[in-house]
Amino acid sequence: MSPTDPALDLLWSRLAAVRRFRFDARNGPGSQTDWSGSGVGTVAVSAENGWLFAESGTYTTPHGHQLPMRNTYHWQREGQGIRLSHRRFQQPVYLFTLQTVDATGRRWQTDEPHLCGADLYQATLLVEDAALKLDWTIVGPKKNEALAYVYE
């Protein structure tokens, strides 16, 4: 039996308690995606070889149009970190693995940027008292995106 990691255990238990999300997405210079707006919704968490987040809510474009949205993310313990994948058509697409980077275990970041096609994914997660804040970037030939998620 492996020793427990208090920081990993804290993050793991906080992920299980998530019920809501909100995010702001912004595209930076050179982005060709027009991925800018905000989202809000609920998270149904289920145990499936980790935590499966079924997110559903509303995405609001910069022009005020509201669109229904759904995402499924899979959080898994991996060694001393947390692996995050996005489910596309029920198939996992690996995004990155988060490792703790401070003595308190409240700041996590990608152990190394992840290359998906020509796009580079990386993130930082903060474990706060009332929320988990996940800030991630996606940079590539056609992308320069910043997403600021808050999970409660």
What structural class do you assign from the helix and strand content? mainly beta
Amount of helix: under 10%
Sequence of secondary-structure elements: HEEEEEEEEEEE
How would you describe the shape? globular
Profile the largest sheet.
10 strands, antiparallel, barrel
The beta-strand count equals 11
Q: Please mark out the parts with pLDDT under 50 across 5 or more consecutive residues, or reply none.
A: none
Q: Any idea what the radius of gyration is?
A: 15 Å
For the termini, the CA-CA separation is 31 Å
Number of helices: 1
Calculate the mean pLDDT score and round it.
Answer: 91
- Beta content comes to over 45%
- Lateral arrangement of strands in the main beta sheet: 1-2-3-4-5-6-7-9-10-11
Would you write up a description of this structure?
Strand 3 (51-60) and strand 4 (66-78) form a beta hairpin. The chain has a ten-stranded antiparallel beta barrel with strand order 1-2-3-4-5-6-7-9-10-11. 7% of the residues lie in helices and 61% in strands. The chain has 152 residues and is mainly beta. It is built from one helix and eleven strands.
Q: What's this, in brief?
A:
With 152 residues, the protein is mainly beta.
List keywords for this structure.
single chain; 1 helix; 11 strands; 10-stranded antiparallel β-barrel; globular; mainly beta; 152 residues
List the helices and strands and how they pair.
Blueprint: H1 6-16, E1 20-27, E2 37-47, E3 51-60, E4 66-78, E5 81-88, E6 91-100, E7 107-110, E8 114-116, E9 119-127, E10 132-139, E11 144-151
Antiparallel strand pairs: 1-2, 1-11, 2-3, 3-4, 4-5, 5-6, 6-7, 7-9, 8-9, 9-10, 10-11
